[in-house]
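Private note to self, pasted from the team thread so I don't lose it. Backbone tokens:
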């Protein structure tokens, strides 16, 4: 099951959130620009994160922890599988929007692997439940469904950032697109 890989202080959490916001508004910002725009003192920023790479790594870690928290808050075992999937998509979109710099920065294969088990098992169980209930098609693998969901969530975050998709419609757009493609039928 999921374990927090690092404990961050309240000050570090605040720095991470502010830095993620600043970086989302302007990719490639330097540590000095992050400090200036966010109102965090340069000395304070460097005391907690010695390099930009350290800061980005901390943002990635916090984003994954927040994604896990969003998944737990989505109550995957409650209600029908479709409603649970809609809740988790909304949670992931919200987290992704806060940390949208990571859409551009991306996660390395190692980072993805580190967190895949954390998020994957519960999501896989949800999709399997939906398939057993007949809510989701049995002709597509659970892995394929989750991969498609991940790509749709990322696309929605990019489209919101580009101004092509309204933030308040992003989760519904992803859920509707995905569910229309995976809905089970009597023909399965």
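Design output:
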């Amino acid at each position: 099951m999921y374990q927090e890989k690092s404990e961050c202080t309240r000050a570090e959490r605040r720095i991470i959130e502010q830095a993620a916001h600043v970086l989302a508004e302007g990719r490639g910002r330097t540590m000095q620009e992050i400090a200036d725009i966010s109102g965090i003192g340069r000395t304070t920023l460097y005391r907690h994160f010695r390099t930009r790479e350290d800061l980005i790594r901390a943002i990635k870690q916090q984003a994954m922890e927040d994604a896990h928290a969003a998944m737990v808050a989505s109550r995957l075992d409650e209600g029908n599988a479709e409603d649970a999937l809609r809740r988790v998509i909304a949670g992931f979109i919200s987290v992704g929007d806060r940390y949208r710099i990571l859409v551009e920065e991306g996660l390395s294969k190692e980072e993805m692997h580190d967190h895949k088990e954390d998020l994957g098992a519960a999501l896989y169980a949800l999709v399997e439940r939906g398939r057993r209930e007949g809510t989701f098609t049995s002709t597509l693998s659970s892995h394929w469904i989750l991969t498609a969901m991940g790509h749709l969530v990322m696309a929605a975050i990019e489209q919101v950032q580009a101004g092509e998709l309204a933030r308040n419609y992003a989760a519904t757009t992803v859920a509707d697109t995905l569910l229309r493609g995976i809905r089970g039928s009597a023909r399965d």
